[in-house]
Amino acid sequence: MTADVFFMDLETTSKENLPQKLTRLVKRAGLKNILVNNDLTAVKIHFGEQGNTAYIRPVFIRKIIQTIKKYKASPFLTDANTLYVGTRSNSVSHIHTAIENGFSYSSMDTAPIIIADGLMGKSETKINVNQKNCSNVFIGSEVVNANALVSVAHFKGHELSGFGGTLKNIGMGCASRRGKLDMHSNVCPKIKRKTCIGCGECEKHCPSGAINFKGKKAYINKNKCIGCGECIVRCPTESVNINWNQTVPVFLEKMMEYTLGVLKNKKEKSLFINFITDISPKCDCLSYNQSPIVNNIGVLASKDPVAIDQASADLVNQQEALPGTILETNLKPGEDKFKGLYPDVDWEHQLDYAQKIGLGTRKYRLVKLKTLSYKK
Ligand code: SF4
Ligand code: SF4
Fold first, then answer.
1. pTM for the full model?
2. 139-155 pLDDT, tens per residue?
3. N or C: which terminus of the chain carries fewer CB neighbours within 10 A?
4. Do 3 and 109 touch, CB atoms closer than 8 A?
């Protein structure tokens, strides 16, 4: 089986600007076919952490909202609360952050923000998936309650999964707090004593009080650690690391099983969009973003969540790396940029496993949209 993945580059003319081209892309990818009148449609995005600027620009999300409305469906913007201490760990601060980053009732053409797992991340629905690692998964109820799903993901590097795209936007992004804990439960980092400078950043941001000090060196209490990974991204000396080979494959598999759970009642009712722009090396959950590793590429849309991530990874890897970023190896076109960033993470495992459990296919046909121009 081969899936169609529709692609628009970022070239425009006076005949059609980028938001208009995006509308053409989502129509071509079949948005209309997944919606019927009055469908409550969850538009799953990442609003960006405060201080991060790599998330998808609101002007594009508004255009998607408007296109959904044209088909007489009722869109709402959604994401689930985070596990770690940040500006999106409860609905109130999550919505404040969304508004600060440009996603408000007025700027989104009156589409409301409804946080999927409620005020404190406890509003969840248990879904039976019967897979290798999880029998049940725990998903933010408002995503489960929605009639249709449009996932709009920012495709970029990610510390735990190599890259983050559609599959992560859905599997991790729609999970309730309990679901997120479940996925991370086998991930407990280690601290390199030799390079730890005792700055206390990890302790300050650890949500479960799992970090203590012996002298001026930090250490982790495994019994308290919930595996959120926050200490890894906060450490200024890169002293906190994961035991990748043992834990990451299971983490990736669980994330795919969660994706399966989210999509279980939305067969033929979902569309997936990846923005391959501002391709930062790390997650948008950070309160900053480092320089993009390759140039902006474009936007993809597909009904297959595996094919779209495979195509996105391929498009990034075909690029030549930009100079002066944290990516120091695999710089040439065709070399694996995500392996260059995270050599110990086998990002392909998530796609392999997703295909194996029936989420979609890694085989795709890239259908390129022509850039419209006036005939001379
Ligand atoms: S020690 Fe565990 S719980 Fe604390 S920040 Fe690190 S990964 Fe998260
Ligand atoms: S953030 Fe890093 S350097 Fe600072 S105390 Fe924690 S492990 Fe040590």
1. 0.88
2. 999 999 999 999 999 99
3. C
4. no
